[in-house]
Design brief:
285 residues, alpha/beta, 5-stranded mixed sheet, 4-stranded mixed sheet, 11 helices, 11 strands, globular, disordered C terminus
């Protein structure tokens, strides 16, 4: 309070952190309080702590003077790097109330840094309704966000890391089967002569990694991608027969994955004479 004034205004709030136990019990009471009260900003973010919210909120800030500001900046950076979902309290509430899709929130935990415990972004909390179900790590978070249509981040193909510059995702879903298609543009610093091989590696790696994550989501009966929501919007009559059994139906729902690399962009720099060339050539000039 010595930094923000002697009175605490709810409009100053940027982020609310719920402990894991609270999230597992259900966030509807918290959401109703936040959404019904006129004093809370609609831009307010929610996150889930690995242990307790007190542990996260009492952590020492590393860069900012205010820990809440630092957490907000950390989540914003995670959004840009495709490591955190971009949701406020309104969009999260709308998502958990929507048919055929489950909600997600940023997941925070404490880690040691220079012999001190600091708060870090550690993945994504998966929900079933308003109750937290499980946690995805950082790499699976990125895959889930790609399957939700978010661009950004890097794709590990084993031999190289490729930046996902642009991504177009399309979902087709009927009560019998689903299909998810990706058309992506990648950036690479590798040798341009390897383009054809890298494209093949990228398509196979992304399809295999997405398949692995989908298998896990199906084991959890958690449609965090939204295949059910597509069925709800495109086949409303069939959805009426499916909606009560969708989690069980989703666990064995056949899903096809298709990945196409549309373009491969190569890392280049501009030399002092204005000519574009490979990085090492520009360094020589």
């Amino acid at each position: 309070l010595s930094m923000t004034g002697r009175s605490l205004y709810c409009n100053h709030l940027q982020i609310v952190v719920a402990g894991r136990e609270t999230a597992q019990q259900g966030l509807n009471p918290l959401l109703e309080e936040l959404l019904r009260g006129t004093q809370f900003p609609f831009s307010l973010r929610l996150a889930v702590a690995k242990e307790t919210a007190a542990e996260i909120l009492q952590a020492k800030p590393v860069i900012s003077d205010l820990h809440s500001v630092e957490m907000e900046d950390m989540i914003q950076e995670g959004i840009q790097m495709c490591m955190s979902p971009d949701l406020n309290i309104c969009t999260f509430y709308e998502e958990i109330q929507s048919p055929g899709i489950e909600g997600i929130l940023p997941f925070l935990e404490m880690r040691e840094n220079n012999q001190e415990q600091v708060c870090v972004l550690a993945g994504t909390a998966l929900f079933q309704g308003d109750q937290m179900l499980s946690v995805l790590g950082e790499q699976d978070t990125r895959l889930l966000l790609w399957m939700r249509g978010k661009s950004g981040g890097t794709l590990d193909v084993g031999e190289a890391f490729l930046e996902v510059d642009q991504l177009k995702r399309t979902i087709h879903a009927t009560p019998e089967k689903g299909k998810i298609q990706f058309t992506i543009t990648l950036k690479s610093l590798e040798n341009e002569d390897e383009e054809e091989r890298l494209i093949q590696l990228a398509e196979e790696a992304m399809a295999n990694q997405c398949r692995s994550l989908l298998d896990r989501l199906q084991q959890l009966q958690c449609d965090a991608v939204g295949f059910g929501n597509v069925i709800y919007r495109t086949h409303p009559e069939e959805w009426e027969n499916l909606k009560d059994q969708w989690p069980e139906k989703f666990s064995s729902y056949p899903i096809e994955i298709q990945v196409e690399v549309r373009h491969m962009l190569w890392g280049r720099v501009w030399s002092t004479n204005g000519n574009q060339g490979e990085e090492e050539k520009a360094d020589e000039s």
